[in-house]
Amino acid sequence: MSGRQLRRSAPMGVLARFGLTAYALVYLMLGVLTFDVAFSNGHHETDQRGAMQAIAVQAGGGALILILALGLSAYALWRLAEAAVGAAREEGKTGPRLQSLFSAVTYTALAATAFVVFGGRHQSQAAQSSSLSARLMVHTGGRLLVAAVGIVVLVVGIVLIVQGIQRRFEKYLRVNKMSETTRRVVIPLGIFGSIARGALFALVGALIVRAAVRFKPNDASGIDAAIRTLADQRYGQTLLALTALGLVAFGLYSLVEARWRAT
What we know:
Radius of gyration: 18 Å
Structural class: mainly alpha
Number of strands: 0
Largest sheet: none
Helix content: over 70%
Strand content: under 5%
């Protein structure tokens, strides 16, 4: 079986939908945690690990985290297959394949995080990120490397915003199989969710670059730091509420994508 046939196979389609569902649940919980910060001054970690830990403490949470870990692993494997042979309707194009590779690496790390949470270890993702940044910065060229990572994350965020505005996600969906009502719901969710996620990624990238320029490793601490930064702004509550709505919208869109994605 060729790589392209494997990517189009029924088992790979099941992996994709399983992974997208797990991916959606993480973003839905992240949106809920961000609402908590906005309106209750919550002190949970507002990042993917924090979302997983919030799930883990619920009744049956351990089993759900294990399912999430397996789902995120499946999602990473599916995106790796897309990187190798091209995404549906994008075969032969380098840009989408690189984006799939970036997603595969990102969600391999998220799956590893889910397995760690399942195993009961609780070092925060922010602390891990800061520690890694600190270790890198003490080496020759380390600050440049951290800055380069920040620029990559910033660019990815901008690309996600542009793709949301241009409704690029539509070409990956079996829109012709949807009802008119479904399309009216899915498209706004995809636009708003993609823009919100992209803006958050862009802010994370900007904070990483700033940390490298100022030589402050503790500032390069991911999504949690970005959300706390928004909270400190003049209209912080409003910004956080919009971010939370966007993350929830993206989670809901991802659930729909799990059903209608062209795999």
